[in-house]
Amino acid sequence: MTYDLVIIGAGPAGLTAGIYARSKMMNTLILDAYKVGGQLISLYPEKGIHNYPGFETIQARRLSDKLYAQAESMECDIHEGEKVMDIISVEGGYTIKTDKAEYQTVSVVIAIGMGMFKPKKMGAPGEDEFEGKGLTYVLPKKEELVAKKVVMFGGGNSAIDMALVSCTVTDTTLVHRKDTFRADESTVMQLSKSRVKTEMSATLVSVNGSDHVESVTLKRGDGTFDVPADLVVINIGISSDLDDLKVWGIDLTETGLVKVDSDMRTNRPGIFACGDVIDYEGKYKQIITACGEAATAINSAYKFVKKPYWA
Questions:
Q1: Rounded CA gap, 2 and 171, in Å?
Q2: Nearest by Cα to 57 from 49, 65, 45
Q3: Strands (E) located in 76-212
Q4: Is residue 75 within 8 Å of residue 22, measured between CB atoms?
Q5: What is the model's pTM?
Q6: pLDDT digit of tens for each residue in the chain (311 aa)?
Q7: What's the CATH number where 149 sits?
Q8: Which of 207, 234, 261 corresponds to the end of one domain?
Q9: Looking at the structure, do residues 176 and 105 belong to the same domain, yes or no?
């Protein structure tokens, strides 16, 4: 069997690409090295998304579930836990070689986000020791936060959104190393009206405890002070691993991301890309822009595969 299209990545961009491809009746396979949902599931499943059209607020996990359900309803083949190892040129298209199988396809859309990403660490004493013992990089479900003293680190939209979720059920402190947040103004305004305590211009000195986290030591100026904590949540960004792109023969920009034109075409004919994995002047990394790029990528893939008279 030869697919019209194989999509690599099952985050918002990849799932949207699948939905659009099936609306054009393209035979479509979606592969993901981890599981469906991308960063929505892996980094902040409990976070409230406030700027996705059609929803005043929607939990990241629920948004992922809705995209997944729609892609499945349109009969996309979706394989989780299957890592793409190589994209090999063959007559009439490509062979997609994974760690489990090989697939034939006419076209490819790369939508791997930040690749095999992992949360950035702060490098403070106790961070590694207490990971899984009261220190995490993903906000637990709300019911697991009740009656705990939660201390969070970060200054972007994700960190604040997590704090806003946490403060609805428990005592929450948000620590940021700068004197102002880098999040959207509307998000910062919500924070100012919430019960979240903030510690600005403060850095983490150490995570403290015996068998479990008991406190964190912070530094501000020349002084240090302790804040009691049962749970420490760190959200200061992610480190990405996009080395697969070099193996796949994809041209990259100076930032190490995929170089595309306005039609989301890469340097390899029939291979397109969308979402956080691509870069261009004015690129704005948001879920909605990734979905828009996915629609453009699929339109280009459709023209490449089907060669309609109007293309």
A1: 55
A2: 49
A3: 77-79, 84-90, 93-98, 102-110, 118-119, 135-136, 150-153, 172-176, 197-200, 203-209
A4: yes
A5: 0.81
A6: 999 999 999 999 999 999 999 999 999 999 999 999 988 888 788 888 888 999 998 999 999 999 999 999 999 999 999 999 999 999 999 999 999 999 999 999 999 998 877 788 999 999 999 999 999 998 888 899 999 999 999 999 889 999 999 999 999 999 999 999 999 899 999 999 999 999 999 999 999 999 999 999 999 999 999 999 999 999 998 777 788 898 999 999 998 899 999 999 999 999 999 999 999 999 999 999 999 999 999 999 999 999 998 88
A7: 3.50.50.60
A8: 234
A9: no
Nearest to 229 by CA among 124, 161, 141, 136: 136
Q: How far is CA 55 from the centre of its chain?
A: 19
- Which one-letter amino acid corresponds to residue 239? S
Q: How many Å apart are CA 305 and CA 106, to the nearest integer? A: 7
Alpha-carbon span 153 to 159, nearest angstrom: 7
Are both 135 and 166 inside the same structural domain? Answer: yes
> In whole angstroms, what is the distance from residue 230 CA to residue 55 CA?
33
Structurally, the chain folds into a number of domains equal to 2
β-bridge partners, 131: 135
Same domain, 32 and 112: yes
Residue 311 lies in a domain: no
